[in-house]
Design brief:
The complex is a heterotrimer.
Chain A lengths: L15 E12 L2 E12 L3 E6 L5 H8 L7 E6 L2 E2 L7 H6 L2 E4 L11 H6 L13 H14 L19 H14 L4 E5 L7 H16 L3 E5 L3 H7 L2 E6 L2 E7 L5 H17 L3
Parallel strand pairs in A: 3-8, 3-9, 6-7, 7-8
Antiparallel strand pairs in A: 1-2, 1-4, 4-5, 9-10
Chain B lengths: L6 H6 L4 H17 L1 H4 L3 H25 L7 H18 L3 H26 L3 H20 L4 E2 L7 H7 L1 E2 L2 E2 H19 L1 H11 L1 H6 L4 H27 L1 E2 L7 H11 L11 H20 L7 H20 L1 H21 L13
Helix pairs in contact in B: 2-14, 4-9, 4-10, 4-12, 4-13, 4-14, 5-6, 5-7, 5-12, 6-7, 6-12, 8-9, 9-10, 10-12, 13-14, 15-16
Chain C lengths: L3 H11 L18 E5 L10 H14 L2 E5 L5 H13 L4 E5 L4 H13 L3 E5 L4 H7 L6 E3 L2 H8 L6 E2 L8 H12 L7 E2 L2 H5 L4 H11 L5 E3 L3 H13 L8 E5 L3 H9 L4 E4 L2 H18 L5 E3 L3 E3 L4 H9 L4
Parallel strand pairs in C: 1-2, 1-3, 3-4, 4-5, 5-11, 6-7, 8-9, 9-10
Antiparallel strand pairs in C: 10-12
Classes of the chains: A alpha/beta, B mainly alpha, C alpha/beta.
């Protein structure tokens, strides 16, 4: 693999790759997260579950540097993060990669740009080394999930790709930058069955490679299958945590339904 | 993977090819219709003196439109920076100072635009319309409504450097083309340009992939302000006059040049080559039409038709969903027509798909 | 892709011809091409009679007339002049708005290449003196006197910003002041210059703020057209406020007929179109010097407007 952007040294030992403590997130009058404690172990797959609007996306946007919490603390690799200076770029430097749901690639732009945007390979004065970016992009395409080789190249526009191919590129991007923590927000939506298998295999591979993953899923069966720990969010609060084996799929499903109904009854 | 591309298909993918084709076609039509004018060199020298300010404005605006924003305040920068330049050159006798301060004035206008749009959140079309009035009005106040004649300005080296002549060739053409080339490099090969494209394409995605959207937008507005100021310098020096109302006529022409050139009005995709060709088309078309004998009354209507045709043509090429929707709508119409004609058109099938 | 080029080609070739062409017998001006700057926008009140005059003269003399419209913008006028010179016509007609200094080097070049340059509507005295022998004439109002003439009864509006053009307002202003009146001066914005209906609210506001205003005056043709409307909106009876202006736009005629407008300087725009073409032909062919003609011979009042109406409707007066 060719070099990527400079990063924090990975060799240091730590217990949790990311940890949130007493995090609140308010948007105007809306309290998206309340007093959330959340941690991900060094080599752990955490499945994050919850209904729509429970706060899952908000949580991971804080982890990935897109949002700044209203209050609370964040640690990465057991080092406190200065939230004033935390950003997506900083998260990338800290080897946290995120595949956001749906919007993580710009439609009209070619693949090679989408791969490197925000951390371009540049020479002096900020001019992009286009040739190199295209080379690496081509290389990545061959390894990415979901491609059947119909003439998609590094120059192809994202618009020309199917949902599965886009997901594959987004994941390939996260892989390329060798994250210690990969955050996946609903990665299996819009994928064909065979591609879903590949994503799950990828998640397991992350674990096998000694890394961590936060995995948001609506499909409880998938989450239940791969996660080491399940965290359930409801209306901005953590309402349940289960280690692998502590709960079976049927009970988990019942629990989620009950939560949903509780919300509906409460008129949420 | 595709096989190696033939030379022919690589040529066809050249940026801006359709609009360059239109420009050449236009020149040929004018050559045929008004040979006494368009087969000589003088009219082209005249264009090379008058198109540069338009070109510089349109090129800078292209980057801003790529980022999904617009700037309507540049006519007032032309007035403001023109006044600053004229005042320092004509009244105080220091043209270099005038140049520096004129560019600074443009930067200030741009910076203010950027703040209002990116930090306060006012849509750029409204913000820059308002600042157009603000700075235009202030210019009238500063200049007390007066215009300056700067007949003596050709004694300055700076004047020759910027708008002098090499033989009959106007130097400003070189400056403006060089600037357009630099802007092309910035848009297509520089980090900043890539950020603008991403912001224009989808600002939310740009944010999550680590682009500092607010900061880059402000930079783009400042760039526009400085470029507008430079265009004003070229214009004011070439005319050897500062007119209190200068700039007003450029608003629509510059926009037309940008959009005829193929830059997407939705952001995320831009063509500087197209803008250059579009600027020459806009700069030439009026003179060409009157030289062919077309009555003056027709000129604006024709320009409007060209503008519309070019913009529709671009959308139909570049936005395939719109094209297929349009084609479907057309087909729907034709099918209705066929079905309603006597003799049973309804049993016709569409051709093999 | 549908090519706009094809459309342009079609339009371009199809419309060759509407321009004036030489008559069958040798006309005085045959073979002469003249670029003529008409001033405003095609068809507007202070431009149309000039256009018609120029066309009529061109038709009579057999001159090929190329019309240019600048929306009264000085920098556009300069641009148009450059384009005209590049076309190497026999003559070019310009207006004084950009000023002597701005035109000087350009006119020098033009005259050197043998082009006859002449002027109208607002003068370029310095250039006229320099190139009179080459046919540089003037067909327009003697501005100071014109303003003075109009000022027999009014307070003014003006375009001080434009070089010599502003002299007419000065004439208006000075005369009124000399007559002992208190005069308020309101500058016209570029928006109003371009689209004069925008003057109505401004005038109406002024009238309401100063209810004892005795007169309103202007030397801007399109603004004159809207004074009557403003007076009406401010609730004034016809004749209560003496209004004076210039040119005979349709709305101005209405104003005259109804008595809202008291006196209008008639700069006889048709002559500003006709005479420069004649100047061009005579200077080009026979080397005659430039003639200065004051086309603003008198004023039109509600009493005299009646006879002129049919000609006005045709865009001649």
């Amino acid at each position: 693999m060719t070099e990527a952007a400079p990063k924090e040294p990975a060799a240091r030992s730590f217990r949790h790759v990311v940890r949130l403590e007493k995090v609140d997130m308010t948007f105007g009058k809306v309290q998206a997260l309340s007093n959330v404690d959340f941690k991900v172990g060094r080599n752990e797959i955490v499945g994050l579950l919850g209904d729509n609007g429970a706060g899952k996306s908000t949580l991971i946007k804080i982890v990935s540097g897109v949002l700044r919490p209203t209050s609370g603390n964040v640690w990465v690799r057991d080092l406190a993060v200065n939230l004033e200076h935390y950003s997506v770029r900083k998260a990338h430097d800290l080897r946290i990669e995120t595949v956001h749901q749906g919007q993580t690639l710009d439609e009209k732009q070619p693949l090679w740009r989408n791969l490197f945007v925000g951390r371009q390979i540049t020479g002096r004065l900020g001019f992009i080394d286009v040739k190199k970016e295209k080379e690496i992009a081509d290389h990545l395409l061959r390894r990415a999930i979901g491609f059947r080789g119909h003439g998609i190249t590094a120059e192809s526009t994202v618009r020309d790709l199917s949902g599965g191919e886009r997901q594959g590129i987004a994941i390939a991007r996260a892989m390329y930058f060798e994250a210690d923590l990969i955050v996946l927000d609903e990665p299996t939506t819009a994928l064909a069955v065979s591609e879903v298998r590949k994503v799950l295999a990828f998640v397991e591979g992350v674990k096998a490679g000694g890394r961590a993953c936060i995995y948001i899923e609506h499909n409880l069966a998938h989450a239940h299958e791969v996660a080491d720990r399940l965290v359930i969010l409801d209306r901005g609060r953590v309402v349940g945590q289960f280690e692998k084996g502590e709960i079976n799929l049927a009970d988990l499903t019942a629990r989620m339904i009950a939560l949903h109904e509780g919300r509906t009854n409460a008129g949420a | 993977m595709r096989g190696p591309e033939s030379a022919r298909s690589r040529f066809l993918r050249t940026e801006g090819l359709p609009i360059i084709g239109v420009l050449l076609a236009l020149v040929i039509v004018f050559m045929i219709a008004a040979p006494d004018v368009f087969l000589g060199y003088r009219i082209y020298m005249s264009f090379l003196a008058t198109v540069p300010p338009l070109l510089v404005l349109a090129a800078a605006l292209t980057l801003l439109v790529a980022a999904g924003e617009i700037d309507l305040s540049f006519p007032s920068v032309i007035a403001l920076s023109g006044w600053v330049l004229a005042y320092f050159t004509h009244v105080l006798g220091s043209p270099w100072m005038g140049l520096v301060l004129a560019l600074t004035a443009g930067a200030v206008v741009g910076w203010l635009n950027g703040i209002i749009v990116a930090r306060i959140g006012v849509p750029s079309i409204i913000a820059t319309l308002a600042t157009q009035f603000l700075w235009g009005g202030l210019t009238t106040v500063f200049s007390q409504g007066l215009s300056y004649s700067m007949g003596e300005v050709d004694q300055y080296f700076l004047w020759h450097l910027l708008v002098g002549r090499i033989g009959a060739f106007p130097v400003q053409a070189l400056w403006s083309l060089a600037l357009a080339a630099v802007l092309w490099l910035v848009l297509n090969r520089h980090r900043f340009g890539e950020h603008l494209l991403f912001i224009g394409d989808n600002a939310r995605v740009a944010e999550v992939v680590g682009v500092n959207v607010g900061r880059e937008k402000i930079r783009a507005f400042v760039l526009m302000g400085v470029m507008a100021a430079f265009a004003s310098v070229l214009l004011t020096f070439e005319n050897r006059s500062f007119f209190n109302t200068q700039g007003g006529g450029y608003l629509l022409g510059v926009m037309a040049a940008v959009f005829i050139g193929g830059t997407s009005v939705f952001g995320g995709r831009a063509s500087l080559v197209g803008t250059v060709a579009g600027s020459f088309i806009i700069g030439m078309v009026e003179a060409g039409l009157v030289a062919t004998g077309l009555q003056g009354f027709w000129v604006r209507a024709v320009v409007g038709v060209v503008f519309l045709a070019a913009v529709i043509g671009h959308i139909l090429i570049e936005e395939p969903e719109r094209r297929s929707a349009f084609v479907r709508a057309l087909r729907g119409r034709f099918d209705l027509v066929r079905k309603s004609s006597p003799g049973g058109g309804s049993t016709e099938r569409r051709g093999a798909r | 892709m549908r090519h706009p080029a094809a459309m342009i080609a079609a339009i371009g070739l199809a419309t060759l011809g509407p321009a004036s062409t030489a008559h069958a017998q040798e006309s005085l001006g045959s073979g002469i091409t003249m670029y003529f700057q008409m001033g405003g926008n095609p068809g507007d009140g202070s431009t149309l009679p000039r256009t018609n005059g120029a066309r009529a003269a061109a038709a009579s003399f057999g001159v090929k007339l190329v019309e240019q419209y600048s929306g009264w913008q000085p920098e556009v006028m300069l641009k148009h002049f450059r384009e005209a010179v590049a076309a190497s016509p026999a003559c070019i007609e310009i207006m004084g708005h950009p000023g002597n200094e701005a035109f000087a080097p350009l006119v020098a070049d033009a005259v050197k290449s043998g082009i006859v340059v002449t002027s109208g509507n607002s003068p370029l005295s310095k250039l006229q003196n320099m190139y009179g022998a080459n046919g540089f004439g003037y067909a327009g109002v003697d501005l100071y006197d014109g303003g003075k003439l109009t000022a027999q009864k009014m307070i003014e509006y003006g375009l001080r910003a434009q070089a010599e053009r502003g002299k007419s307002d000065q004439g208006l202003y000075d005369t009124l002041k000399a007559a002992g009146l208190q005069v308020d001066y309101i500058e016209i914005s570029p928006e109003v210059d371009h689209d004069s209906s925008l003057a109505v609210p401004i005038l109406t506001a002024y009238l309401q703020k100063h209810p004892d205003v005795k007169a309103i005056g202007t030397q801007h043709g399109n603004v004159t057209a809207f004074i009557g409307k403003a007076l009406e909106q401010a609730g004034k009876k016809p004749g209560a406020v003496t209004a004076g202006g210039i040119d005979l736009a349709p709305a101005t005629i209405e104003g005259l007929k109804r008595g809202y407008v008291s006196v209008v300087l008639d700069q006889q725009l048709y002559l500003q179109g006709f005479l420069p073409v004649a100047q061009c032909v005579l200077s080009k062919k026979y080397g005659f010097a430039g003639l200065s003609t004051n086309t603003g011979a008198g004023v039109v009042t509600p009493k005299t407007i009646g006879g002129l109406v049919p000609l006005i409707d045709k865009g001649i007066r």
